[in-house]
Amino acid sequence: VLESLWRSGWSNYCGLGALIISPTRELALQTFTVINHVGKYHEFSCALLIGGTDVEYEKSRLGRVNIIICTPGRLLQHMDENEQLLCDQLQILVLDEADRILDMGFSQQDPVFVSAHERCAHVTPDCLVQSYMVCEDQDKVNTMWSFIINNKKSKTIIFVSSCKQARFLTGAFCHLRPGLPVMGLWGTMNQKKRVDVFQKFENKEVAAFIVSSDRRFDLTTGNGVDMYRFDDSIA
């Protein structure tokens, strides 16, 4: 995004040049952080538009930003309420995890699937190992506990189906003291606490992270992360 704008001669006086839409606040925040770090030698201005923040403060800045990173709901709010949001000169539109955004109900038609790599038959990295285990519902919590106990020297992310499950399991496993930090992240958690918890997990060498499935983010720290999903089926 930065290179494309720079090569096109875009300047900080040209207005909004790039719009990046992410499905969750966490992913949008990560993208915003990376853009600011990589683009510190450019003059482009960047704004983050996500729920849980001061919308009036956001409105006052939009007339002079070059790159907007946002979640769909907050973008729709600004499009409806904010005359400062002008997209008539937009050069780049990025839909981060487009399939996820469409699944969230922001499209009334079936998504069109495209290959992420022109010459690849699939987008799964060659080094990624995928496996599954079938167990009865009453055994899921014990199985999850076994995963945590047997991965004390690694970072483990466990996705569960609801905020209630994430909150309950985080509290229960913290109480059981498995010998490594146990953290949780779910949609009903307030924005500041979500950011704090996620940053703590990123900075840990080992930890178990229990996350409700509505949360999306990109994890780039560490040599490897074990990820597990506890779903009703393997489909």
Explain this structure:
This protein has helices at residues 2-7, 25-38, 55-61, 72-81, 98-106, 140-149, 163-176, 191-203, and strands spanning 18-21, 46-49, 67-70, 92-95, 155-160, 182-185, 207-212, 225-229. With 235 residues, the protein is an alpha/beta fold. It folds into two domains: 1-106, 3-Layer(aba) Sandwich (Rossmann fold), CATH 3.40.50; 137-229, P-loop containing nucleotide triphosphate hydrolases (Rossmann fold, 3-Layer(aba) Sandwich), CATH 3.40.50. The radius of gyration is 20 Å and the shape is elongated.
Quick overview of this protein structure:
This protein is of the alpha/beta class and 235 residues long. 35% of the residues lie in helices and 16% in strands.
